Amino acid sequence: MALKKKILATIIGATVAGSAVLPLTANAETLRIGYSADPETLDIHEQLSGGMLRFSHLAFDPLVRWTKDFQFEPRLATEWVQTDDTHMRMTLREGVKFHSGNELTAEDVVWTIERLKESPDYRAIFEPIATAEAVDDYTVEITTTTPYPLLLNLATYIFPMDSQFYTGETENGVDKAEIVKAGNSFASRNVSGTGPFVLIDRRQGVRVDFERFEDYWDTESEGNVSSIVLTPIAENAARVAALLSGGVDFIDAVPPNDLERVREASDVELFEVPGTRIIGFQLNEEQVEAFKDVRVRQAVDLAINQEGIADRLMRGFATPAGQFSPEGYSGYNPDLVPRYDLTRAQELMAEAGYEDGFSVDMIAPNNRYVNDAQIAQAVANMLSRININVNLRTMPLAQYWPEYDTRQSDIAMLGWHSDTEDTANFFQYLTFCIDEESGAGQYNYGNYCNEEIDALVTEADSVTDLERRNEMLREAEAMLYEDVGFITLHWQNLAYAAAEGVEIEPVVNAIDFPYLGDLVINR
Hints:
Elements: E1 30-35, H1 50-59, E2 64-66, E3 72-74, E4 77-84, E5 87-92, H2 106-116, H3 123-126, E6 129-136, E7 139-144, H4 151-155, H5 163-166, H6 186-189, E8 197-203, E9 207-212, E10 227-232, H7 236-244, E11 250-251, H8 259-264, E12 268-283, H9 294-303, H10 306-313, E13 318-320, H11 342-351, E14 358-365, H12 372-383, E15 388-395, H13 397-406, E16 411-416, H14 423-430, H15 451-460, H16 466-483, E17 487-499, E18 502-503, E19 520-521
Parallel strand pairs: 1-10, 1-11, 14-15, 14-16
Antiparallel strand pairs: 2-3, 4-5, 5-7, 6-7, 8-9, 9-10, 11-17, 12-16, 12-17, 13-17, 18-19
Helix pairs in contact: 9-11, 15-16
């Protein structure tokens, strides 16, 4: 059913915390979402996470975006040409408006790239970019420090920000562009993007309201959702119950033990997507001396039954992993498989002088990854068999990230989807030696460091011969496999469910960012 309601979108860029909650409408124009978590902040450069990227696709638009088959689709950039090994020119779409009413120009793209290069979470990704320059109002030239084969991959994470809106000082004299991790900043409370939806109201952990942007540039989109009510529902059973009872229209992260129940329910459809997100654990070598010994790290890896977790706990809704790269990625190495061997793990602990074991603290979220708390408990139980006694604490994502960032615990759970859909990204963020200046190792919770691997991946990122580059990344995966710089468990599959008539299948994808601006409701 075509929707003709005119949306009033005048509350733009205002502080939304504490605003009155809008009344819930039950017509087809409103999409009621039950996500496992809501956006951690409104500053899209503050936190590199799946939740924030989902939010980015609601309130902002990227220069280009991925299609279902991992091709590049023009969005705010309509054309691009690689003029030589280190220069690319991108042509911007004309007439695009921000929610503030300002018009998008090349200066906004340049400003955004410069801010990304300052972001603690993003600067490692954007380190290959030397400069960005506005050639004219609708042309941007991006220069890389060396030949770089993944510039378009990076462009999928450039969501131009409204530079006029975010420039200047607040009433308290604070820079509006400042990025504050887990803090209170102008950008964390205010938003002006070019995306299909304007944020109207936000109460973190309770509810987020959006309305369709009246001046949205993509008039060709068939999307007919006029408003969105996003309610975070962390508990799996409660989220499924909300859908089956008609309380929400669309949910994410359908848990494995509810797949059959949802599949058989009337008036509800289940959509399963093979995933590329690696789930695993990081061993903090700064906190635990034993973890500096490769034999202990190998013992931990060998003590964990990845196939058992995937089969029994995930009920087949995961693929056991022995490396970062899923099949199809540049560095995927078919020789690197899970190697559960409890006897050998116990032998390695004894060889390292830790036959009697030791005690550690472990942290894990309980509302971010499928069965995350249960997986953490299963791993804790498995480690007890090699006399590593685990004190496990699980917590909601809003509490988890600030604690994760301090690196005070001994073991931490992490799921990572490669931001560039490429192997190198896993290494750059999760295992590179920590370098605060460059941003390398931003999510290297374990303080692991192998300069030989880092050098190999860095060299691969300047190789434009993709066959040779893939070979180098496969070698890096093999080196990490032996050195156990990260404990890999499995690649998490994705499952969404929606009420009948909510045509979610065309807009969901393996990268876990539903393009809800294109969603059609037909009921």
